[in-house]
C-alpha cells in the first residue's frame, strides 16, 4: 500500500495547486510521478500526470476558456502547446520563434466544439460518413498519461478510450495513444490505435494539420504520380484522377485526397519557411484550403494532412501505429 510521502505546492501558471506525492517506501526519485489535480477557471478539472524529472520541459497550464493544456519547451528554444481537449497541438515554434501552425480566428475553446486549427485529430472517421465530420476524437478531452524529457526532447503521451459517449456513435472498445515529442527544429507525433474490444472494427483517420502560410506563395512538392480523389465540387462523390504536377499550389478552393502518398512531402509556406513533412505508415495525404468559403482566414493557412483514407480493419487486440515528423529545414 502506498504511503503519503510528501505534499508539494506547484505553481500551475497563475493557479496555486496542492498536489500529493504518493510513493512506496523505496522509490527512485526519477521515477516518482506527481499527481496533480486542479480545478481550473470555469470548473474544468485537469489531471496532470507528469514525471518529476520532466518538470523543466513539460508543464501543464490553464489555456483559453479554462481548458487544460500541456506546454513543451526545449532548452534549444523550441516550444509546443497541446490542449487535452481533442489532443490538439495548437502551437509549434521551432527554435527561433515563429509559430508554424495556424489557429483559425473562429477557433472556440469551450470544450464543446473541436478546436479549429493546429493539429486536430480525425478519428475514427475521416469523413464524410455516418458520424460527425472527422469523428469524435477532436471533440473529447484526452488524458495525460505520461511524460518524459530525455536528451532535451520533452514529450507527452495522451490517451483516449471508449466511453458511453463514443459508444453511442461507434460501439467499440478502443484505446488511442498519442505521443508528442518536441525537438529543436522538429515536432514528432506517434498515434497508436488498439482494438480493445472482443469484436473487429474498422476506422479511418488523419492528422488535420493547419500550417501557417501565405496562400499565394504556398506550395507542396512530393505528390506527383499519386492517385487522387478530388472532393471538389462534391465531397460525397470525389472524382478520381492522377496528380501530374511536381509542385501543387493553392490558386483557388482545394480539397483533394492523395492515395499512396510519399512518406516525405515538402511545404514552402510562402512566408519564407520550408518544412519537411515525413511520416511512417501514414499512407495517404490530403490538401485542403477553403478559399472564399472562409473569407476571413483562408489566405493565412494551408492544410497538409497525413491520412489513412483506406479503411483499416482491426481484429481484437491488434494495434495500428503511424508517425509524423514535421521539421523546419
Ligand atoms: O472540420 P474542419 O477543420 O473545418 O475541416 C473541414 C475540411 O477538412 C478537410 O480535411 C476535408 O478534406 C474537407 O472536406 C473538410 O471540409
Automatic annotation (TrEMBL):
Keywords: Isomerase. GO terms for molecular function: carbohydrate binding; glucose-6-phosphate 1-epimerase activity. GO terms for biological process: carbohydrate metabolic process. Its EC number is 5.1.3.15. It is an enzyme of class 5 (isomerase). The keyword Isomerase applies. Pfam families: Aldose_epim (PF01263). One of its GO terms (cellular component) is cytoplasm. It catalyses: alpha-D-glucose 6-phosphate = beta-D-glucose 6-phosphate. InterPro entries: Aldose_1/G6P_1-epimerase (IPR008183), G6P_1-epimerase (IPR025532), Gal_mutarotase_sf_dom (IPR011013), GH-type_carb-bd (IPR014718). Belongs to the glucose-6-phosphate 1-epimerase family. This is glucose-6-phosphate 1-epimerase. It comes from Vanilla planifolia.
Amino acid at each position: 500500500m502506498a504511503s503519503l510521502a510528501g505534499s508539494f505546492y506547484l505553481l500551475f501558471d497563475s493557479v496555486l495547486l496542492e498536489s500529493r506525492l504518493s510513493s512506496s517506501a523505496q522509490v527512485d526519485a526519477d521515477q516518482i510521478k506527481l499527481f496533480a489535480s486542479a480545478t481550473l477557471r470555469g470548473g474544468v478539472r485537469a489531471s496532470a500526470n507528469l514525471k518529476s524529472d520532466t518538470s523543466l520541459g513539460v508543464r501543464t497550464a490553464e489555456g483559453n476558456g479554462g481548458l487544460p493544456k500541456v506546454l513543451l519547451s526545449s532548452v534549444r528554444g523550441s516550444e509546443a502547446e497541446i490542449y487535452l481537449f481533442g489532443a490538439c497541438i495548437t502551437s509549434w515554434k521551432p527554435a527561433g520563434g515563429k509559430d508554424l501552425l495556424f489557429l483559425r480566428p473562429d477557433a472556440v475553446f469551450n470544450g464543446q466544439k473541436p478546436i479549429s486549427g493546429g493539429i486536430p485529430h480525425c478519428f475514427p472517421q475521416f469523413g464524410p460518413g455516418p458520424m460527425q465530420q472527422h469523428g469524435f476524437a477532436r471533440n473529447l478531452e484526452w488524458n495525460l498519461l505520461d511524460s518524459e524529457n530525455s536528451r532535451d526532447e520533452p514529450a507527452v503521451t495522451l490517451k483516449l478510450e471508449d466511453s458511453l459517449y463514443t459508444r453511442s456513435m461507434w460501439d467499440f472498445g478502443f484505446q488511442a495513444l498519442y505521443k508528442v515529442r518536441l525537438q529543436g527544429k522538429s515536432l514528432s507525433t506517434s498515434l497508436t490505435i488498439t482494438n480493445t474490444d472482443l469484436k473487429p472494427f474498422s476506422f479511418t483517420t488523419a492528422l488535420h494539420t493547419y500550417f501557417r502560410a501565405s496562400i499565394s506563395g504556398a506550395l507542396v512538392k512530393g505528390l506527383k504520380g499519386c492517385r487522387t480523389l478530388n472532393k471538389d465540387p462534391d465531397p460525397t462523390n470525389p472524382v478520381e484522377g492522377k496528380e501530374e504536377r511536381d509542385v501543387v499550389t493553392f490558386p483557388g478552393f482545394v480539397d483533394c485526397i492523395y492515395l499512396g502518398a510519399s512518406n516525405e512531402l515538402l511545404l514552402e509556406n510562402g512566408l519564407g519557411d520550408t518544412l519537411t513533412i515525413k511520416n511512417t505508415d501514414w499512407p495517404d495525404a490530403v490538401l485542403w484550403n477553403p478559399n472564399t468559403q472562409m473569407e476571413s482566414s483562408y489566405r493565412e493557412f494551408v492544410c497538409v494532412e497525413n491520412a489513412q483514407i483506406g479503411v483499416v480493419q482491426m481484429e481484437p487486440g491488434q494495434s495500428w501505429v503511424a508517425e509524423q515528423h514535421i521539421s523546419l529545414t
